[in-house]
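Progress note, sequence design subtask.
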């Protein structure tokens, strides 16, 4: 089923990894889709993309402050709405984006619906006088939307805690890859296991912990580290000291990654962030990932991998030892990874949920 109207989608930036999803969603909007997104700050090093089906209009982003105080104002938001005149609007549900309330008001004045799309809002940690006011601010922000699209079930639960009715919350599992059309076959006999990391080489990825854990295993597994970044020289120096067999491949993208996923037996992401988990699963790999924003909860389960606490070296080393102790089980877990991204979590399923949310909200 398609969305029969004209759709507008707002994003702060348009990263290259989102282009396939937005083009797929645009192909299911009979009135067309316009995507409003601007440029990231240079320090973010986000690779931009170019859509083929969605009509991309450049937002004029004004970046204010930084770190925990970062705010963004998109100067030409209302002008874009007036030019495109969408029947429905989907926006990032982020209170740091200052132009959003004006855009919501513009749509509601014309009797049109706005859907927020976001990660959720975890309850503030700790106790203090500021907790209730913060939750109140979040609730007021969220309640301006007519429905919510959540990246994960955890995010959906957090919106429900803020008072959003369950029937107005749709879980569109965060995905960057289509359902796989291939299936890598791996042997279970006479295997020297290969571990794979794919991502930017920066401190929060904890690749140093991965090197140390490989050294502590004592079985000398092959370790492939694919990526580049500010920590590469330091990591290579560290590897020479404790795990000299580690292979630093450098940055690879798209089809260049295929042979490394095919060679691997286990994908390990010891730090926060990382979009390569789903791609690894599409190659039939079991995964070890650090817990994060909730999107990992839906992807990584007992039957296909391990979620570990971030910054917990003992948990990482234990999970790696457990994973490599039974190669037959590891292959079975890889098959479950493949099933999950084939049947449940991919950009086709994500677009299907977006369209369902649009139709349910605009027809109600």
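Output:
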């Amino acid at each position: 089923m398609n969305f029969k109207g004209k759709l507008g989608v707002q994003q702060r930036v348009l990263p290259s990894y989102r282009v396939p999803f937005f083009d797929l969603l645009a192909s299911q909007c009979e009135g067309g889709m316009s995507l409003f997104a601007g440029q990231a700050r240079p320090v973010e090093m986000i690779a931009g993309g170019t859509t083929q089906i969605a009509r991309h209009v450049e937002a004029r982003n004004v970046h204010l402050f930084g770190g925990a105080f970062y705010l963004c104002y998109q100067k030409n938001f209302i002008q874009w709405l007036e030019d495109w005149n969408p029947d429905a609007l989907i926006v990032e549900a982020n209170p740091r984006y200052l132009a959003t309330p004006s855009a919501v008001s513009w749509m509601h004045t014309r009797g049109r619906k706005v859907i927020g799309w976001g990660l959720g809002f975890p309850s503030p940690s700790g106790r203090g006088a500021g907790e209730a006011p913060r939750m109140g601010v979040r609730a007021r922000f969220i309640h301006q939307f007519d429905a919510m699209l959540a990246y994960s079930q955890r995010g959906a639960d957090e919106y429900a805690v803020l008072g959003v009715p369950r029937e107005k919350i749709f879980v569109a599992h965060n995905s960057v890859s289509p359902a796989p059309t291939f299936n890598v076959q791996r042997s279970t006999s006479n295997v020297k296991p290969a571990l794979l990391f794919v991502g930017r080489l920066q401190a929060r990825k904890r690749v140093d912990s991965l090197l140390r854990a490989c050294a502590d295993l004592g079985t000398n597994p092959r370790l492939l580290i694919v990526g580049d970044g500010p920590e590469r020289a330091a990591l290579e120096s560290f590897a020479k000291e404790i795990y000299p067999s580690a292979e630093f491949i450098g940055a690879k993208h798209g089809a260049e990654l295929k042979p490394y996923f095919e060679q691997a037996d286990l994908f390990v992401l010891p730090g926060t962030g990382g979009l390569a988990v789903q791609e690894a699963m599409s190659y039939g790999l079991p995964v070890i990932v650090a817990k994060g924003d909730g999107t990992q909860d839906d992807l990584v389960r007992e039957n296909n991998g391990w979620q570990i606490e971030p910054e917990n070296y003992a948990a990482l080393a234990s999970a790696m030892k457990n994973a490599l102790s039974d190669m037959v089980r590891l292959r079975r877990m890889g098959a479950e990874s493949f099933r999950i991204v084939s049947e449940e979590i991919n950009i086709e399923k994500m677009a299907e949920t977006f369209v369902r949310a649009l139709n349910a909200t605009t027809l109600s």
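The CA atoms of residues 3 and 358 lie 7 Å apart. Work on this subtask will continue into the next period as scheduled.
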